[in-house]
Amino acid sequence: MEDIHYKSIDEISKLLRSKEISSLEIVLYQLERIKKLDNYLNSYATLMSEEAINRAKKLDKEILQGKYRGPLHGVPIAVKDLCFTKGIRTMGGTSVYKNNIPDYNATIIESFYKAGAVILGKLNLTEGAISYYNPEFQIPQNPWKEGHWSGVSSSGSGAATASGLAFGTIGTDTGGSIRHPSAVCGIVGIKPTWGRVSRYGVMDLAPSLDHVGPMTRTTKDAAIMLQVISGYDPMDKTSLYSKVPDMLSESEYDIDGMKIGYDEKYTFEDMETEFAESVHSGIKILEQNGAEIVNINMPKNLREYVESWAVICSSEAAAVHSKTFPSRSKEYGPFFRNWLEKGMNHTAKEYSEANFLRNKCTGEINYLMKDVDVIACPSTARSAYPVTPAELYSSPKRDPWLSRFTVPTDYAGLPTISLPSGINKKGLPLSIQFIGHLLAEPTLIRIGCAYERFTKFTNMHPPL
Q: Cα 344 to chain center, whole Å?
């Protein structure tokens, strides 16, 4: 069982199907590893040990009977604590919901159960899935270096995946919260097309911006998870009524002739040199292996566009929390309380103007995509940095420019993939992002698999 925690879902599923190992053995091993490491990492908000053990036993019997559900059969995963799980508390990082025990499962939970996955537990996150934490909740540690930023808001998902406390996890992304933790924790994250994955039973932050997607250690694993959770859901009227493709249908293709849009200034401006250079090097590697690099220019008004995100997100968040805010405002942490207050005070005119800027940004990004297959850029604006609990529990001023690599694609609902692109001199992960056309997740998986073959960066693990 040595180092089995860093095996891929693809590898584990083959061992399970061939009966070389049982789901129960893996689950017990994972629970022991969580017990050993998570007192420090704080990635889990709630462990579902008994449920996981019982489910593993049932799934092992099915394999012995020749009833195999697919590549997630018997595989232990975990989900962000925004996903309603029947009989299990779902808190959303918010003390207002610390006693919230749903009586139904989110659609993605049902999808995972149908596929035979074992859910180990619910993962910690920033309060309400925004930027900072409620003082009553623990802060996930970055497994690469103590006291360093683990990303927002799917930080528990990033920490658990990187440290081998789950074979894959679920994150959500409203302004970058799959990509930021994937980048600083050194893992793969896919933000699907908006509506590709049902949000039914997933706590909202800002419904018109929220995306749900997988966070794993390899691109193929992310594709396996995405395949299971994608598709139209009658319980979520915003989910897309379109055929779900085979997410791995292009994974073995080469990238000859693939056109990659790239704005060098966008990558290097206001960026750590090592980070920008890792992205630039990644582009060159792909070019050497058959891709065509197409120079593009990101929108000139990008700064104004990303500043509008706060108006949209806070306004929608205030509407989502209207049943508990401001009536229970004292139960909210300082940052999220301030965020909701701002949202309540925005006028209809301000919200309308912000959405107009969002639409303009979306139009410009879609125009840039017309002659390319993907766009390449960093996944986040900086590598993991030193931060104290006091800072992460407080209400600092938020710099919109730090979201310039993530917000535009949340505006447009475009799918993205984030991949490790190296390690800096401080021993911290760097990351590259590829942006695809609407519903073109197989193309992103294709370039992700190719990038992994050429670089091997997904073989890196934190020094735990």
A: 28
Tell me the residue type at 16: L
Ramachandran category for residue 270: left, alpha or beta (phi over 0 → left; psi -120 to 50 → alpha): left
Residue 427, class by beta-carbon neighbours within 10 Å (0-12 exposed, 13-18 middle, 19+ buried)?
exposed
pLDDT tens per residue across span 186-212: 999 999 999 999 999 999 999 999 999
pLDDT at residue 450 is higher than 90: yes
Q: What is the pLDDT of residue 1?
A: 67
**Amino acid code (one letter) for 384:** A
Q: How many whole angstroms separate alpha carbon 401 and alpha carbon 387?
A: 19
Q: Are 126 and 152 in contact (CB under 8 A)?
A: yes
Cα-based torsion angle of the residue sequence 59, 62, 66, 70 in order, rounded to the nearest 10 degrees: -40
Residue 336: pLDDT band (50, 70, 90) is very high
Measure the CA–CA gap between 243 and 232, rounded to whole angstroms: 8
* Domain that includes residue 204, residue range: 4-459
8 Å CB contact between 379 and 151: no
Cβ atoms of residues 213 and 192 within 8 Å? yes
**The CATH number of the domain where 114 resides is what?**
3.90.1300.10
| Token representation of residue 223 | 């594709």
Model confidence at 3, pLDDT cuts 50, 70, 90, reads: confident
- For residues 213-237, one letter each, b for 16 or more C-beta atoms within 10 angstroms of the residue's C-beta and e for the rest, the string is bbbbbbbbbbbbbbbbbbbebeebe
Residue 398, pLDDT score: 80
Q: Cα separation of 256 and 428, whole Å?
A: 31
Chain Cα centroid distance, residue 7? 20
**What local confidence, expressed as pLDDT, does residue 164 receive?**
98
Q: How many domains does the chain have?
A: 1
Residue 464 within a domain:
no
Task: Give the largest Cα separation in the chain, rounded.
Answer: 62
Bond into 326 cis (ω within 30): yes
Which regions of 331-457 does DSSP assign to beta strands (E)?
Answer: 374-378, 416-423, 429-436
Q: What are 117-148's pLDDT values in tens digits?
A: 999 999 999 999 999 999 999 999 999 999 99
Block residue for tokens 């966070």: 215
Active site (catalytic) residues: 80, 153, 177
